[in-house]
Amino acid sequence: MAKKNINEMSFLDHLEDLRWHLIRICLAVIIVATLVFIFSRFIFDEIIFAPLEMDFPTYSFLCNGANFIGVDTTFCAEEMPMILQNRTMGGQFSADIWTAILGGFIISFPYVIYQLWKFISPGLHSNERKHSRGFIIISSLLFFVGVLFGYYIVTPLSINFLANYSISKVVDNQIDISSYIALVRNSVLASGLIFELPIIIYFFTKIGLVTPEILRKYRKYALVVVLILSAIITPPDVVSQVIVAIPIIVLYQISIYISKIVIRNQKRKEKKHV
Question: How far is CA 106 from CA 133, 145, 175, 212, in A?
Answer without folding.
Answer: 19, 12, 25, 31
